């Protein structure tokens, strides 16, 4: 038994949260509003651009530095458009808009009940640091595994194994909550109890079914 898996009347003593879409709302558009016209923002955030914002956002979460991303982005889009992406990085905190409704209270209740709370997020280190500065709820986590730090992204099974070893917890006594089905399935394949997040009320019901009062 690991040191975080104390004996108790319940099987699950650790809850691991994804951040974006589970604990926090994220809207990259808000980092650019007020700096550029809507048409420019639409262009930069166009999901049809194969080597646009969304591809480089994934690479950022995978460990690419902002400067490496900006250099690569500029080689394809030119310096003027690359400066828009730099503006996004400079105002990243504005994209982290709010806590998902109901999750602040739920996380506090789980912490008060003695559960160990952790984070496992596909994100850049800069994004996580901005969230920690802005939202107290993230500071209730006992530890956070950040994809960019590990150069691994969910649903790669290895990042879940890193998380279990890093926190010294076992799959059997751990519950993972994420809003992406592929990430939930990957955790389940490793024997980690997992829930697909659709809202705070749903998670409360599911937790109660697992014997976790909240």
Automatic annotation (TrEMBL):
- List, alphabetically, the SUPFAM superfamilies matched: HAD-like (SSF56784)
The record's InterPro entries line, in alphabetical order, gives: HAD-like_sf, HAD-SF_hydro_IA, HAD_2, HAD_sf
**Matches recorded under Gene3D superfamilies:** HAD superfamily/HAD-like
Q: Which Pfam families match?
A: HAD_2
Q: In this entry, which stretches build a coiled coil?
A: none
Its domain of life reads Bacteria
Q: Which PANTHER family match?
A: ALPHA-D-GLUCOSE 1-PHOSPHATE PHOSPHATASE, FLAVIN MONONUCLEOTIDE HYDROLASE 1, CHLOROPLATIC
What name does UniProt use for this protein? Haloacid dehalogenase
